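hey all, quick one before standup. I had two proteins in the batch that finished overnight and I want to keep them in one place so we stop losing track of which output belongs to which input. First protein below, input sequence then structure tokens straight from the run.
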Amino acid sequence: MKKIAYFASLVILAGLVVVACKKDDDSTPPTEENKHAITDLDPKEGPVGQEVVIIGTNFTDQNATAAIGGTAAVITGVNTDKTELYIEVPNGATDGKISVTIDGLRVESTQIFDVTETIAGPESIELAETDLAMRSLETISVPEITNIADFDNPMVQWESNTPETAVVDNDGNITALQAGEAQIEVSINSASGELNTTIEVTVEESILVVGSFDNGNYDVASLWLNEEQIVLGDETDYSNAASVNGRYVAGYEGNRACVWHIKNKGEINRIDLTADGVGYAEAKSVVNIGDDVIAAGFIYKDENENSM
């Protein structure tokens, strides 16, 4: 009886081992529904270190490897809908198809990825100046990039991180708007990659005086910016500037109340507040609140003076 019991125990133990082994080996093989596929590459060429987007379906970065022409590449990520897998061109890679292996299933692209030569370029952007002092309403050009000739096919961009203090246009002209600190970010994209640097800008308030001057025929509205005269009015009619607030000047031209918007010394827009034929009007003060410009003054009509 003892032998029979011992034999039965061995049989039961063996059965448990077989069941356990089956459970350990239980994995879901890829099916046509969850099989991954490569449909495109972006870009289709690039140097070592270039990020490549593998476009397709059912991608994951778990239990996954990738290669370019047989050389293993690092997978850097996958998008949320599993249609893009991101890799970098590895050192030693040569032209060839890109393969992706997930859970032992390998697929490869129909296109050949061309590994291009890495183009050497400057390691930094060199500027003639990196610190600028400006006054409000002043416009100057960004400092010269002294090593621009060393870049291969450069594309230069400028951007202000504090546009309420200073702005920069696509041509690299910086305009100071109000007192404060700002940074102008300079970036250069070229065949060798992208480089960035910054320009520190300190803006002080300008000294502004408004009024009019006699041109021999008419009194003409003017603004004096740090003692430099800027003519606001049309010199063929009477006008006057009554007050200034930031970049806005209140006054009149002809018989119309108006506000002059000074974008910079060379760009001034007149905003008419009243039309011809409604009587004489004049704006006496102006404030700028957000996107709104609010002026106060009077309209003289039918021998009655009315506030605006």
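OK second protein, same deal, sequence then tokens:
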Amino acid sequence: MKCAGLAVAIALILSPFVLSAVEAHAPNAALEARASTSARGAEVYPEPVEGLSTNGVGAESEGETSASGAAHPEAKPFPSPSRARADIAAALTRARANGHRVLVIFGGNWCHDSRALAGWFATPRFRAMLDPHYEIVWVNVGKKTKNLDIARSYGLDGVPGTPTVLMLDAAGKPLNLADAPTWRNAASRSADAIYDHFARG
């Protein structure tokens, strides 16, 4: 009995070192080993091991960290700058037919704030809110040197920052000239703040 007690004591003393060795060579096994230690006392939950996801949520999903390290999803929807006029015209045609408004988003795939806004717009939550109310046009402005004439034609002072988010009614009348240039910090805004803004119309 004394030998058995001594063996148990030694095992308890060495267990942290065994777990450290397991973590170094087999992270998944380390999670299981940590979980099993809960049987010796109070509840102990598995600790996350660096580089592993314990909840099955991917890095690009809503609310998680994107591949670039930003705390938002990202997308790169801006097509060739040459498509801008045709895309806006097509969106206005659809808007007149279905009573939607048009969001003309001036930005670029190089811009992290543009990618952040596009990333949120692409999530199921945002699509469910946007699709019944808006036609969305992504206007590529290059490095803020292209399609500035289009922005000016709607009353904007060019595109001082990206993204610039212009809202039009179905007739093409601008509805938010004062607000449109303020989206250059889109990557810093919360998902709920962005959602609520566009949900209000």
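Flagging for whoever picks this up: The longest helix spans residues 2-25. The helical segments are 2-25, 27-36, 84-98, 112-121, 124-130, 148-153, 191-200.
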